[in-house]
């Protein structure tokens, strides 16, 4: 039976040793859900941009202020963090999920979209 290695001898695994390398790879081709931006409901608080782990939120500076303009779907993995942190996803009176027509970001199944 081979001798087992101790934790100090094991190779590094499960760690991101080069953070910030996602821009080198187009990773959005395998998502199951796609965030859909509804600009008429957006208050441009930029919470989506702040929480997006893949920097997939497209931002434009207008009159010195950041404005959300949509997604770079090449990098979006469809995790839904943007929709979860968006204040427009919750009805402020009831604290329940807001109706889809009032949300700024709605998650849709990727199968709803034809090849683009």
UniProtKB/TrEMBL annotation:
Instruction: Tell me what organism the protein belongs to.
Output: Fervidobacterium thailandense
Q: Where is this region: Disordered?
A: 89-116
User: Which cofactor does this sequence's record say it needs?
Assistant: [4Fe-4S] cluster
Compositionally biased intervals (Basic and acidic residues): 90-104
The name under which this protein is listed is: 4Fe-4S dicluster domain-containing protein
Chain ranges of the 4Fe-4S ferredoxin-type domain: 33-62, 66-96
In the UniProt record, does the keyword Iron occur? yes
Q: Which key words tag this protein in UniProt?
A: 4Fe-4S, Iron, Iron-sulfur, Metal-binding, Repeat
Q: In its keyword annotation, does this UniProt entry include Signal?
A: no
Among the GO molecular function terms of this UniProt record, one is: 4 iron, 4 sulfur cluster binding
One Pfam family name is: Fer4_7
């Amino acid at each position: 039976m081979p001798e087992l290695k101790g934790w100090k001898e094991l190779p590094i695994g499960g760690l991101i040793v080069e953070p910030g390398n996602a821009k080198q790879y187009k990773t959005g081709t395998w998502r199951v859900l796609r965030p859909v931006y509804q600009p008429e409901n957006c208050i441009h608080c930029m919470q989506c941009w702040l929480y997006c782990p893949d920097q997939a939120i497209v931002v434009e500076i207008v009159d010195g202020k950041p404005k959300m303009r949509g997604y770079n779907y090449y990098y979006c993995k469809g995790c839904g963090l943007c929709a979860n942190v968006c204040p427009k996803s919750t009805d402020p009176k009831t604290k329940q999920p807001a109706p889809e027509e009032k949300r700024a970001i709605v998650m849709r199944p990727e199968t709803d979209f034809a090849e683009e």
